[in-house]
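Suppose you are handed a protein chain with no further information: no name, no annotation, nothing but its sequence. What can you learn? This example shows the usual starting point.
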Amino acid sequence: MIQVYLTFLTAIALSAVAGFYSIIGLAQIFPGSFWPIVLMGSILEIAKLVTVSWLYNNWKTAGPLLKTYFSIAVLVLMTITSMGIFGYLSKAHLESNVVLGANTVQLRTVEMQEKITKDRLEYLLKQASDPEKTSSRVDRDIRNAQADLKKLTEQKLPLLSEENKLAAEIGPIKYIAELFYDKNDPSFIDKAVRAVIIIIIIVFDPLAVLLLIAAQKTYKVTIRNNTKTTKRSKKKQVDHIIELDEDEELVIQYDEEEKNEVIPKSKITKLDGGSF
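A reasonable first move is to predict its three-dimensional structure. Written in structure tokens, the prediction is:
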């Protein structure tokens, strides 16, 4: 029975996680009706499991039309669940890309301003080295340019730190993407993420449904084996038929093994304590 419980609980856990991801993903696809989508998705997930269980237990007795419709309904519900999971995981990836992209834009902007300030400072230093062009104004502009360059450097450091953290977060999928896609392709990471999500949804909800069927099959086999064991143990019981043969000895007959055990009459005690 441990195998039955383990398989059943694993199936329910997988189905619950898949349902959660699917419901949240579908709610994000239709953000204007969040709670109605959550309610609908929850009922559909439960209905899918109940339908699968009913089909397995009543496949031989159900009509062809009912079996066909229920089978199609289960496949459609599994597809919807997979779509919801795909939407949920895709949104998580896109959110990380948005953060990374915003930080990258800020960093590039600061780097561009830094380059402009450096070019301006270099130009002012050339003027300051020319006796004919040097003046107090040039000195003041040099000091301002140096102050601006210092501020830009202070702004750049935290952006660089955040850029490194975000790059480390997408590092694993980046290395996976480089195994299968050309890293010169701007969308090679997105392609890898899409492939990983598809692999996940292929085994996620279908595995939960099949584990539920496996749990019921294991339960039936266990019950059948226990019934056979009980019947076998009953057959081993003594028939309680006691007979005396011609030599006045007691014979106890067993049904299953058809063996006779002979007990001398002198060893048999009466109910009142006496002997024969």
